[in-house]
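Lab manual, section 2.4: Encoding a predicted structure.

Procedure: take the sequence of the chain (85 residues), apply the prediction step described in section 2.3, and record the output as structure tokens. A sample record is shown.
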Amino acid sequence: AGFAFYVANFGSYNKTYGTLAGVIIFLVWLWVTNLAILLGLEFDAELARQRVIDGGHPPEEEPYVEPRDTRAWNEADRRRAASGE
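Recorded output:
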């Protein structure tokens, strides 16, 4: 009786587990993509730091790197950036 039930319902396993496998593969793809983005950002930050050090900044101090986009700054942010805070 149990084997007959298994054989009768075996075809539906593919739909169920195929969908679950698709979800798992999608989550793994998201994880790998996010890891690649994070490693790229770390690499870019280290390249920027090395450029500043090559320009004469002491390596033991954290270098100041200009932000790439300052259009959204308000006046208080501009004064703070100009004073070096």
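Check your result against the sample. The CA atoms of residues 37 and 65 lie 20 Å apart.
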